[in-house]
């Protein structure tokens, strides 16, 4: 089965070479395409990729192919969508440009995938120099099973994911800020999600990460994006109060991070308020609150409003 190792990169000059090398060095016996989407990097990322491209050509490995696509900066979601569209493999294995894989990552994960739509794994957290900060990020956490579980937090970090290409394409365009989290929930809804603790992906924590370890204004921005994702799923699939509890938990954290009870959590339009009233009339209170978290009719469980 052919696999596309999809690497998205933006200003990853320091780490992109190691990410590409770790993909090319996989001991996977099947055909492997390493596809890099350079999302308009302005540092030395392009030069580092060209050096790796020359090395790959010189090696002449028939089952290995490195392909680099440069595009104007469009953001992480757009870069992921481009990679999904361009992938030539039946499976896509996501890899961020600042992370790396152990050599047996694909061999073990493809074997464990079975008939499932998506597989994810644990991570070892390393610093910019490659020193281990945490051997197991997930530890003995029970894998999420329900929509409520998944909305309370994303366990499927991108560089650990293998997903079926046909499914990823069907789920595009990606309507929320977190492709990995979105793919995992969609796979849970339509197929099966497998968790494989070993081998562990090397997740690099270097102070400029998009998600894990962020703080201050960056954490506030991440929380706002989380509310966007939760709201999208709640509007379409929500029905349990445990699912809305996840939204409230992140909303309260956003208020704490911004140190203000007057923080505007999500934009609510006149159309959103109308949808909420319609949902209340149908008794769909969780969906109503996803449209308008301040909808009093839904908060009082009153369908007469």
What does this structure look like?
- With 305 residues, the protein is α/β, with parallel strands linked by helices.
- It folds into 2 domains: 3-204, Alpha-Beta Complex (Spore Coat Polysaccharide Biosynthesis Protein SpsA, Chain A), CATH 3.90.550.10; 216-299, no CATH class.
- It contains 12 helices and 8 strands.
- Strands 1, 2, 3, 4, 5, 6, 7 and 8 form an 8-stranded mixed β-sheet that branches.
- Helix 1 packs parallel to helix 2 (45-59), helix 8 (216-237) runs antiparallel to helix 9 and helix 8 crosses helix 11 (285-291).
- The longest helix has 22 residues, at 216-237.
- The model has no long low-confidence stretch (mean pLDDT 92).
Produce the secondary structure layout.
Elements: E1 3-9, H1 16-24, E2 32-39, H2 45-59, E3 64-71, H3 76-86, E4 91-96, H4 105-113, E5 118-126, E6 132-134, H5 147-151, E7 162-164, H6 165-170, H7 179-190, E8 193-204, H8 216-237, H9 241-258, H10 270-281, H11 285-291, H12 296-299
Helix pairs in contact: 1-2, 8-9, 8-11, 10-11
Q: What keyword list fits this structure?
A:
Spore Coat Polysaccharide Biosynthesis Protein SpsA, Chain A, eight-stranded mixed sheet, 305 residues, alpha/beta, single chain
Strand elements, count = 8
The quaternary state of the protein chains shown equals single chain
Order of helices and strands: EHEHEHEHEEHEHHEHHHHH
Could you say which structural class the secondary elements and strand pairing correspond to?
A: alpha/beta
Number of helices: 12
Instruction: Quote the beta fraction.
Output: 15-25%
Net shape: globular
Low-confidence stretches: none
